Amino acid sequence: QVQLVESGGGLVQPGGSLRLSCAASGSMFSIYVMAWYRQAPGKQREFVASILRSGSITYADSVKGRFTISRGSAKNTVYLQMNSLNPEDTAVYYCNVDGSTWGQGTQVTVSE
Q: Rounded distance, CA 13 to CA 50, Å?
């Protein structure tokens, strides 16, 4: 069983940057994919980015060129570097492992 804890959310002005972290604990040897999703008010949860055990990375079109997903050297942490943020990026961001385990979420608000 894997447990996830996200951190790094907050309030930022348009054009600013934030870095989210997700620390995994528990049975991590079998993790195949770590990913970030987000859910804006009144909208469905949507995919943001993912990184496979192999290192292969996928991004949603809406964040390509602005967001970067990476894993820590110990492979139990995944990061999401978010640059050039705009108000449409406002959402609760969730970490996900293997499509099943979710973190508690961290709020990102982009506003003047």
A: 25
Q: Is 97:24 a contact under the CB 8 Å cutoff?
A: yes
Burial 41-78 (b: 16+ CB within 10 A, else e): eeeeeeebbbbeeeeeeebeeebeeebebebeeeebbb
87: helix, strand or coil: helix
pLDDT tens-digit profile of 12-44? 999 999 999 999 987 666 788 999 999 999 999
Locate 33 and state its tokens.
């994919």
Q: What is the pLDDT of residues 64-86, one digit of tens each?
A: 999 999 998 777 899 999 999 99
Q: Would you say 58 and 49 are in contact if contact means Cβ atoms under 8 Å apart?
A: yes
